[in-house]
Every structure is written in C-alpha cells, then in structure tokens.
Amino acid sequence: MGNKLFANLKNDLPAGIVVFLMAVLLCLGIALASGAPFFSGMIAGIIGGIVVGILSNSHLSVSGPAAGLAAIVLASITRLGAFETFLLAVFLAGAIQFALGIFQAGAVANYIPSSVIKGMLTAIGIIIIMKQIPHAFGYDKKAEGNLSFLQMDGENTISALINSIGKIDLGATLICFISLAILIVWEKPFFKKKFKLLPGGLVAVIVAVVLNELFISSGNSLAIENGHLVKVPVAGSFNEFLGFFTLPDFSQLTNPEVYIIAITLAAVASIETLLCIEAVDKLDPEKRSTSPNRELVAQGVGNMTSGLIGGLPITSVIVRSSANVNAHAKSKMSTIMHGSLLLICVSLIPTILNKIPLASLAAILLMTGYKLCNPALFKKIFSLGKYQWVPFVVTVIAIVFTDLLTGVGIGLGVSTLALLYGNYKNSYYNTPLI
User: Residue 425 pLDDT > 70, yes or no?
Assistant: First the structure.
C-alpha cells in the first residue's frame, strides 16, 4: 500500500502543492463566509486532506470545507447560539454519513446523468472565472469560496463583477497577469518536460511574493496592501496555537435543534460529495471509479474528527478536485500531501503564507475555471444531440444563476423530462396473439 502511494510522487507532489495553495485561500474564505473562526476552515482542510484522503478510495478528489454549506453553517451557528454547539452537530452529521455508507446509501450516485455532471463542471468553471475576476483586479471585498449567485450581503455575482471595475488595484492586476503568464508558459511541452517537479502554480506564487516584497521595500506605489494578502491566523505561542482548536459542547446532546441541523448537514454534504466524486471520475484520464459507499464512510469519519477539534463540515470539493486533476495528480497521495502541507505551514510558517497576494492565487483559480468550461466541450456536447445538450445547457444556466444543489436539481428534472419525451416519441406496437 505504501509503495503504491509513493509510486507517483513525481506527479503527486507538484499537484499537492498547487492544491495546497488554493486550499489556503478557500479554507479561509469559506470560514469567513460561514461566520466561523478563521482557523476552523484550516482544520477542515487539514482533516479533509489527511483523514478523508487516507480512508477514501477516490484517487483524485480533494475534500475540505465546502462553499455550498456556508449559508447553512452561518444560519446554524446563529440558530444554536454557540460555535461549540454547532461543532456537536458537525460530529453527529459525520456519524450519520458513516451510517449511510455502511448501509450502502451511496448507490444513488449511479443514477445521475452524465449530461448533468458535465453541466455542473462547466458551470463551476464559469462561476470560478466570474468570482475571481474581482480578486484578479484587487477588489477583495467579497469572501473567497462563495459559489452561489446571490450573496449574503445582498449583492450577486454580476454586481460584484461590475463593482470591481471601478476599484482596480494596479499592483494586484499586474501580479495577476504575470502569474497567468507563468501558468500559461508552464503548460508548454518544454516546461512540462524540463520542470515536471516544479509546478507552475508554485512558481507563480513565489514570483508574486518576491515582486511584491520588492515593491514594498522600494516604496513603489504598486505595492499590495495587507488587505489584499492571505490572512492565516498567527499564534504567538504554542499554547495560543492550541487555543485555535475548539471542543464540541456535548452537554447539548439533548437539544433537538442540534439533531435537525446534523441531519441537514449530513444530507447536503453527502449529496455534494456524491456529485463531486461522480464528476471527478469523469475527469480522471485513467477512468477509475470511486466507491460511493466507502466515500460516505470516509467523509463521515472526517466530519466526526473535524467536529471534535473545531473544524467546519467537510465534503468532497469540485474546485480543489478539478485543480488536482489539472495539475496531473495520479493518486490520492496528492490529497494527503496537500493536507499535510496545510498542517505544517499553518503551524510553523503562517507569516510566510501571509505574504502571498490574493491576485496570484486568483490566477491559479482562473486557469482552473477555464479548463473546466473549455469552449471545445460545448461543441462536443452539441454534437451528441438535443437529449444531451438540453439538460447540459439548463444545468449550466441554473447553477450559474442559483447555486450548486438547486441547479443540479433543475438539471436532473429536465434530464428526466427529456428521457420521458424521447421514450414517448418511440412507437410501440402490440402484436396480436394467434
């Protein structure tokens, strides 16, 4: 087992680094959007990488805090009145997921049409691009990780995009364009071959940090301010670091509200996870399949662990998973390494992480988004006929203008109607018995 995990290290190490860089940004952004402590997002990312990564048999999916749960988490913390009580609900949600996996409930994933899955991936790509353009221009008012069209501050994806136009930060924009140029060049065959162990995402981030430090030291007006840099919590001592971890309040086990929220979290997290692993299996160049039941068991253990030490709820996440695929990962070792890097860096070198410009990470996400919604995919889907492209297009539009679960639900409904209509048009004849 150990030898198999390390057999593809030359691919998995660079991929793990790229996913780690993205995960820092998304873990913090989702914690902010959820109204939870910053470090709770990092805990969820670490557990999702290491614990779920070890237990899952998915080769390429990456787990962590999910944007789709942010609104539920925010409402749940408010409803329960204390973060510690919410952690108890996360722990119980994990126990429910574990039971669902044991009782083979993951089989529902086999009934999701491929047109809806492809539509989901394309929509996520479009959303990533639309959400990251403001960050690329240095407009970092909105929290990272929110993939819903309607935002909790009353704005939406399009209005945030328009507002960013009048608030362009030249330094952030320059760094984003330089980072994008590096990422594009690194995709060329020469660089892929010569620098296979050095991921373009890491190079882009290092160049961005060095460039911004030069701007700061020289007093250049292009220097990026702290508000546009990564903000990982920094502990002044080991005891202060331990204080970032929080235990659930088990005295609330008799509170019925806790169980209602636990069931809600378990249901939504399980659906998002099953959708993600189906999508990642379709992205996998080697076409390997993941056991949905084992995945639910792994997610259940992950959520129980996360809830026990102060983390947000975990799901398999399509943004990080697709970045993992695009970074040419070969096995789940990349997922485990990304979680290990999160743990090492937030505990030992958080001040270095806090020098990373958000604009350079936005460039990595923009490239990920483009690969998910590549125009060539539309041409391929349209060539398959209307019973494929109609559910695909509806799913894309529905997810972009609502949220992941609502959009997928609409896509599934249209796909079912298309299937029924296609069968209705077929002629059936009763042959008389002689």
Answer: no
pLDDT at 381: 87
Closest of 108, 33, 88, 383 to residue 272, by C-alpha: 108
Domain ranges of the chain: 15-370, 378-425
Whether 276 contacts 68, CB under 8 Å? no
Dihedral sign (CA 132, 174, 195, 23): negative
Distance between start and end Cα atoms, the chain = 64
Summarize pLDDT for 150-175 with one digit per residue, the tens.
Answer: 776 667 888 888 887 778 899 999 99
pLDDT tens string 274-298: 999 999 999 999 999 999 999 999 9
101 neighbors 302 (Cβ within 8 angstroms): no
Q: Which two tokens stand for residue 50?
A: 């290491």
Q: Give the global pTM.
A: 0.89
**Contact (Cβ atoms closer than 8 angstroms) between residue 247 and residue 87:** yes
φ, ψ for residue 316, nearest 5 deg: -75, 130
Sign for the CA dihedral angle at 25, 26, 31, 33 comes to: positive
C-alpha gyration radius of the chain: 22
Phi, psi dihedrals of residue 156, rounded to the nearest 5°: -135, 180
